[in-house]
Structure formats: C-alpha cells, structure tokens
Specification:
Number of domains: 3
Structural class: alpha+beta
Number of helices: 7
Order of helices and strands: HHHHEEEHEEEHEHE
Strand order of the largest sheet: 5-6-7-4-8
CATH topology of the largest domain: Polyamine Oxidase, Chain A, domain 2
Helix content: 25-40%
Number of strands: 8
Radius of gyration: 21 Å
CATH class of the largest domain: Alpha Beta
Distance between the termini: 27 Å
C-alpha cells in the first residue's frame, strides 16, 4: 500500500501523517500493509460520496433496509451450518434453496462455511468520552500518526450529528487497531492530551474499548 501511494506521487510525510492513520483505521492494520486494490476502492468511495452517520444511530441502517422487504424474508437466530452451492443448511435441519447466496459474516464463520485456513483476525479498540464542550467545531475525522500513540482516528460525533449527545454535552470517540486484549487507555490519554491539550483530561470515559 505504501508503494502504491508513493507511485501516486504522495510525499512520505503525507503518507505517514494522513494516509497511514486513515487506512490503518479503516482496514484495522497496524501500518500500511493492506492491499493497494482495496485502498483504491476506499479512495474512490471517499472521493465520490460524502461520509455520514444516521441521526438515529447505526441500527437505523439495517432497519431502513428491512422496511420494504416482504414479510418473513428476514430470519433472526437461524444459524447456518453448511453451504453447498446455493443450498443453505440451518442448524434446525431446514435446507433452503436460494437463487444466489451472499456470505456476509465474521471471518471465523466464513472460514468454517467456505473451508480453507484462517490467517487470523483483525481487532480494533475504541473508547467513548463525554465532555462539557467540544475541543473544536470540526466534523472531520482527526487522523493521528502511529508514532504518536495507539489512537489512529478521533471523531467528535456530536459535531457530526447533534442527536448523538444531550444538549450542552459532547460525544467524542477515539479508536485504533490493536492486537492486544487489554485496551490502551492510559497511552491513549497521553496521546489525546498531546493532541487536544489539557481540556482532554476532563473528558469522562463512558465505555472501555471494544
């Protein structure tokens, strides 16, 4: 990925300061080790369409998608135990014959259903903070280089959607890829202090990274 960006004539400084934390946060990699093909797709999506979040929360997306579907077309709690072409076998013993099958699941289940060896999974930590005021008025994602600490991306969510926090309060989220089961809260606090100043020490941690 780094070679691809260099071929696109981006400077080493811009790659480290902008593209590394951006793609690291999206692809959940510790550095620019993702594929150039996927990176090109991500760049295209960011250029062609503005990013947004639903005012009612992320659950609003699947709910909106389900609104116009025929009754009974969505099954919850139906575990798929085997795929054979377009034949789907459920744990209940029922077998469904579909016109087409689209597999959209976690990596462990995908490997189990499709076969083959797993090359491991990628994890992310995140932490939500509450503040009495935003550190700035920006709606953009704040990109933090890897050399500065565990945070790759910081977003002031209530600047983007005021519905995400009560009136006179601010919701801030910090996130980054991780290979550890222990959340890097202390190191993240130091990085946030260096980035946003002393005001970040007053931010209240709402949830631990997950």
């Amino acid at each position: 990925m780094r070679e691809f960006l260099a071929e696109m004539k981006f400077s080493a400084r811009s790659i480290d300061a902008i593209w590394e934390p951006l793609f690291s946060g999206i692809q959940l990699t510790s550095s620019l080790e993702g594929s150039a093909r996927l990176g090109s797709l991500i760049l295209r999506c960011l250029i062609l369409g503005p990013a947004a979040v639903p005012a009612a929360g992320m659950q609003a997306i699947p709910e909106q998608m389900a609104l116009n579907l025929p009754p009974g077309s969505i099954r919850l709690g139906a575990e798929v135990v085997n795929l054979s072409g377009t034949e789907v076998s459920l744990s209940s013993g029922e077998v469904i014959e579909a016109g087409k099958v689209l597999l959209a699941t976690d990596k462990t289940a995908g490997v189990r259903l499709l076969g083959g060896a797993s090359d491991g999974s990628r994890s992310q930590w995140h932490a939500y903070f509450r503040s009495s005021e935003p550190p700035n008025e920006s709606k953009a994602i704040h990109l933090l280089p890897a050399a500065q600490g565990p945070c790759r991306n910081v977003a002031i969510m209530s600047n983007v959607a005021t519905e995400y926090a009560p009136e006179d309060e601010t919701l801030i989220v910090a996130a980054g890829p991780t290979s550890s089961r222990e959340p890097p809260v202390s190191a993240a606090r130091v990085q946030l202090l260096e980035t946003f100043g002393a005001r970040s020490e007053e931010w209240e941690l709402l949830t631990g990274p997950g």
